[in-house]
TrEMBL record:
Residues 337-366, 397-419 are annotated as: Disordered. GO terms for molecular function: protein-lysine N-methyltransferase activity. Signal peptide: none annotated. InterPro entries: SET_dom, SET_dom_sf, SETD3_SETD6_MTase. This is SET domain-containing protein.
Length: 603
């Protein structure tokens, strides 16, 4: 009998041999047209989905977390385990390495994956020194999970570097330049720099796993991408059951489950049970009397994520993604003072400080304004933290107004509408905007004892509800909302300028036109994350060439850009309407007239 060399078959046999149940499922290559999604989970035969019946299950022994990694390092007796132990010990005693919390869990799992990968490569190269001495196989005599060989079937089915297509791993690609104007451009640049710094910091300890230079900066970026595209946070759910299932770990890698691809219309989900022998299950999302055919791919949902996050972490985008969002830091109104001050300094190149009679420097004029602005921003950031508001505000596509014809007649929005932004802002985002635009003229500030005031009234409870109530009680509340619409409109227009400033799409030569994914991207997901970029031509299109990687990347970036443009254009239209409606309000008219009168008196 000939032994199989197919990694998928070896992996399937390994799962079954170690307690996983997947009789109705199989692993196959997943493709959308000529684009590859890598390995996916498929039905083995005709199947009726029933949400009460598990389709597959994974035992606790196959869950990979930092508890397992530390146990291997502490109890493993093989040469490979001793290498892992030296690496972990070095990391635990290093001053600059976090040794608790999610950051430490991530490092442990990165080390585990690199440990398995280097061991697999060394065996492939015939380097028996990594597993034994004198040509003898080095076998773990106790728990088999402490032996690196136990995990090799899982390690070998993971995607290689050329099978990952996240922007962080793109090199010399035109698609990178097309990211300019989007949130991802800065995120990719920052992530690359952070990975390089981390690699250089960890390398002295990672070298215990391999002394031949296998773990390069590129390999470190690979293992980080593998981790983020596959990890699940299970800690809280597992701890609910207590007993043997209780674990200090949150991050987990789950063989089998982590090969499920994503779809907005997922038909299966992962589920935690309280049975120690069947911890994680795959179940149908709904019960359907109609059977699905054999060789049908089953999808889970990675969550309601925007294309920026899907592309950055998983390497794919979803056309017309209803979860798209454009994020930005709170636009504190005091930042304008700082920008104006910086421009004045550039023009004049002079100091605002003057020397007093006793020789000391005393801030004057603009410098006092700058100090006040900086203090106000610090106080606002502290308030956002106290209110547990995120450091980023998101703009989403406004929902369409209900009823036909309202688009032409004008959206039915105004002060009396519960949500005049039509879902463009969440309640927490709107509260963060209030914090950003309130000023001392609104009676907003922080007293010497640390208490905040809004409209001159103390914020006795630092809660969102209490803050919202004080803002809404302001006599000029509608002016505050108008200020929010105006600031948001300025941000939206700026971001549109950034996107349109990148020009038209790059030209594609005539001979490459057939390989562009325009006809495919309208249907579903564009190229999976941890996925291979090439696949064989579809059987029904034998003359079609496989898509070039650059065209795959450009197509994904264009979907990202178009989604952001559509979202921002819709937001721009709505914000212009909101401005027009609010300017007409009597309360706003009276406030603006009073402000104009004060300005004229000052002149």
């Amino acid at each position: 009998m000939m032994l199989t060399t197919d990694p998928k078959e070896i992996f399937t046999s390994w799962l079954r041999a170690n307690g996983a149940a997947l009789d109705s499922l199989t692993f196959k290559h997943s493709a959308h047209g000529s684009q590859s999604r890598g390995t996916g989970v498929f039905t083995k035969s005709q199947l009726i989905l029933d949400e009460a019946e598990p389709l597959a299950s994974v035992p606790s022994d196959l869950l990979i977390n930092n508890d397992l990694v530390l146990r291997i390092a502490q109890e493993g007796t093989t040469v490979a385990a001793q290498k892992l132990a030296r690496c972990i010990h070095g990391l635990q005693t290093a001053d600059s390495v976090p040794t608790s919390g999610p950051a430490w869990e991530r490092i442990c799992l990165l080390v585990f994956l690199l440990w398995g990968w280097t061991s697999a490569v060394q065996r492939l190269d015939g380097d028996i020194s990594s597993s034994g001495v004198g040509g003898k196989k080095d076998v773990e005599k106790g728990d088999k999970r402490l032996d690196v060989d136990f995990w090799i079937p899982y390690i070998k089915i993971l995607p290689e570097i050329n099978g990952l297509d996240t922007p962080v791993l793109w090199t010399d690609s035109l698609a990178l330049s097309r990211l300019e104007g989007t949130e991802l451009h800065a995120a990719v640049t920052s992530k690359r720099a952070a990975l390089l710094r981390e690699y250089e910091k960890l390398l002295p300890h990672l070298s215990h796993l391999d002394g031949t230079g296998l773990i390069t900066a590129e390999r470190f970026a690979w293992v980080d991408a593998v981790f983020w595209s596959r990890v699940l946070a299970l800690g809280a759910a597992l701890r609910e059951f207590g007993g043997d299932l209780a674990s200090g770990s949150d991050y987990h890698l789950i063989p089998l489950v982590d090969f499920c691809n994503h779809s907005p219309d997922a038909n299966i989900r992962w589920h935690i049970t309280d049975d120690p022998s069947r911890v994680v299950q795959l179940r149908a999302t709904t019960t359907d009397d109609e059977p699905i055919p054999a060789d049908t791919e089953l999808f889970i949902s990675y969550g309601n994520k925007p294309n920026t996050e899907l592309l950055f972490i998983h390497g794919f985008v979803i056309p017309n993604n209803r979860n798209n969002v454009v994020k930005f830091t709170p636009p504190f109104i005091e930042q304008k003072v700082l920008r104006d001050d910086d421009e004045d300094e550039d023009d004049e190149n002079t100091s605002n400080a003057v020397v007093t009679e006793d020789g000391s420097d005393e801030p004057q004029g603009d410098e006092l304004n700058r100090v006040a602005a900086e203090n106000a921003i610090q106080n606002k950031m502290a308030l956002l933290a106290a209110l547990e508001l995120r450091g980023l505000i998101g703009i989403r596509a406004p929902s369409e107004p209900e009823g036909e014809g309202q688009q032409e007649e004008g959206r039915e929005i105004g002060p009396g509408v519960e949500d005049p932004t039509l879902g463009m802002l969440t309640e927490s985002d709107l509260l963060a905007m209030y914090v950003a635009v309130l000023t001392a003229d609104d009676g907003f500030g922080r007293l010497d004892d640390g208490q905040y005031v809004v409209g001159g009234y103390p914020l006795t409870e630092t809660t969102r509800e209490a803050f919202s109530a004080l803002v809404k009680a302001l006599p000029h509340f509608e002016v505050i909302r108008l200020r929010v619409w105006a600031v948001l409109l300025e941000i939206v227009n700026f971001k549109l300028c950034l996107l349109y400033g990148q020009g038209a799409r790059p030209a594609v030569s005539q001979e490459d036109q057939h390989s562009r994914p325009d006809e495919e991207k309208a249907e579903g997901v564009i190229a999976g994350a941890d996925k291979v970029l090439f696949s064989s031509p579809a059987k029904d299109a034998p003359d079609r060439s496989p898509m070039a990687p650059e065209h795959v990347r450009l197509a994904k970036v264009e979907v990202l850009r178009e989604g952001q443009c559509d979202l921002l254009l819709g937001a721009c239209e709505l914000l212009q309407t909101l401005q027009e409606r609010w300017v007409e309000l009597p309360q706003v008219q009276e406030y603006l007239a009073a402000m104009q009168g004060e300005l004229e008196e000052e002149e």
